[in-house]
């Protein structure tokens, strides 16, 4: 029984490294082709860091375990707020009072409410998928418009020059870009296959549903890149990066991952999602109101509260 756990861990490690490789390759290819850095950050980087969740969700649907796909997304969004913001806050206070994230936060709440409304249809089918992808298209259009205004302000001297997205290297050779892209494109499906197949074996062995495995093991695993990014942002006192990382990731998970996965095959909604998990996800999202609207910092005390709430949530799921 040890082997499925080891192979699940191996699949997760492959996913993390492959996702990082894909982001580096895509960012540098796009910049080489002259695509603005801000556009790359808002699209390719966001999609690349969500690629593990996407591959896992699609693979789960093809393997007949759609509960794992839905659990992965809902569990990952809850983990992103309670764990990914809670643990870094234990290390250093995040000065979120200095951030301006109201607009993107409002979009995240709107995406969450749309997702919950569609869930009460009982299934995420191609119709729900198209609605979610329409929401994604609007979000990206709005981001492009903001990016365009920002670049115009930079050119007119009204704002600072834009920063290059993480992973950008002007001196990266063409063969290195190709290598990162190939490693990412090969590693992602391989890692997803290992993780989903063995997580399903673990669930069947212990009599745990694929939904619970998605909400716990897989959700925590796919939130590790966001956790690593947020820890570094907290230590570097870059609260805007930490909070923006979580809000952006959650929106992409809801609109893009389930939107695309729904076109691959229908995803039935377990009754437990409608009773508990969707509301926990929304409640965790609403916990950000003091930091977004009231000018509060995420202190170590808040870190304890958020981390404890996530531990309690996992305990309730597993029992």
Automatic annotation (TrEMBL):
<feature type="transmembrane region" description="Helical">
    <location>
        <begin position="111"/>
        <end position="141"/>
    </location>
</feature>
<feature type="domain" description="Sodium/calcium exchanger membrane region">
    <location>
        <begin position="5"/>
        <end position="138"/>
    </location>
</feature>
<feature type="transmembrane region" description="Helical">
    <location>
        <begin position="68"/>
        <end position="91"/>
    </location>
</feature>
<feature type="transmembrane region" description="Helical">
    <location>
        <begin position="173"/>
        <end position="192"/>
    </location>
</feature>
<feature type="transmembrane region" description="Helical">
    <location>
        <begin position="242"/>
        <end position="264"/>
    </location>
</feature>
<protein>
    <submittedName>
        <fullName>Calcium/sodium antiporter</fullName>
    </submittedName>
</protein>
<dbReference type="InterPro" id="IPR004837">
    <property type="entry name" value="NaCa_Exmemb"/>
</dbReference>
<feature type="domain" description="Sodium/calcium exchanger membrane region">
    <location>
        <begin position="179"/>
        <end position="318"/>
    </location>
</feature>
<keyword id="KW-0812">Transmembrane</keyword>
<dbReference type="Pfam" id="PF01699">
    <property type="entry name" value="Na_Ca_ex"/>
</dbReference>
<dbReference type="InterPro" id="IPR004481">
    <property type="entry name" value="K/Na/Ca-exchanger"/>
</dbReference>
<keyword id="KW-1133">Transmembrane helix</keyword>
<keyword id="KW-0472">Membrane</keyword>
<dbReference type="InterPro" id="IPR044880">
    <property type="entry name" value="NCX_ion-bd_dom_sf"/>
</dbReference>
<feature type="transmembrane region" description="Helical">
    <location>
        <begin position="301"/>
        <end position="318"/>
    </location>
</feature>
<feature type="transmembrane region" description="Helical">
    <location>
        <begin position="35"/>
        <end position="56"/>
    </location>
</feature>
<feature type="transmembrane region" description="Helical">
    <location>
        <begin position="276"/>
        <end position="294"/>
    </location>
</feature>
């Amino acid at each position: 029984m040890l082997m499925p756990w080891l192979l699940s861990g191996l699949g997760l490690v492959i996913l993390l490294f492959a996702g990082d490789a894909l982001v580096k390759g895509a960012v540098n290819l796009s910049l080489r082709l002259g695509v603005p850095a801000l556009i790359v950050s808002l699209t390719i980087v966001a999609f690349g860091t969500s690629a593990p969740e996407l591959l896992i969700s699609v693979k789960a649907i093809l393997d007949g375990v759609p509960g794992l796909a839905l659990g992965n997304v809902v569990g990952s969004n809850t983990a992103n707020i309670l764990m990914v913001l809670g643990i870094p806050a234990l290390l250093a206070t995040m000065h979120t009072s200095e951030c301006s994230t109201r607009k993107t936060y409002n979009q995240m709440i709107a995406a969450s409410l749309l997702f919950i409304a569609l869930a009460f249809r009982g299934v995420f089918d191609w119709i729900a998928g198209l609605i979610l992808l329409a929401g994604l298209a609007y979000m990206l259009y709005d981001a492009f418009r903001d990016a365009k205004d920002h670049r115009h302000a930079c050119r007119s001297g009204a704002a600072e020059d834009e920063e290059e997205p993480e992973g950008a290297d002007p001196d990266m050779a063409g063969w290195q870009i190709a290598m990162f892209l190939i490693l990412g494109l090969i590693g992602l499906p391989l890692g997803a296959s290992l993780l989903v197949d063995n997580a399903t074996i673990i669930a069947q062995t212990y009599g745990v549903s694929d939904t619970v495995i998605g909400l716990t093991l897989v959700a925590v695993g796919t939130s590790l890149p966001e956790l690593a990014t947020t820890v570094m942002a907290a230590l570097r006192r870059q609260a805007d990066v930490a909070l923006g990382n979580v809000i952006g990731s959650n929106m992409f998970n809801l609109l893009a991952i389930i939107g695309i996965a729904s076109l691959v095959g229908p995803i039935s909604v377990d009754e437990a999602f409608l009773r508990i998990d969707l509301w926990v996800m929304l409640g965790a999202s609403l916990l950000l109101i003091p930091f977004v609207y009231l000018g509060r910092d995420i202190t170590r005390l808040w870190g304890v509260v958020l981390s404890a709430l996530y531990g309690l949530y996992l305990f309730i799921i597993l029992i």
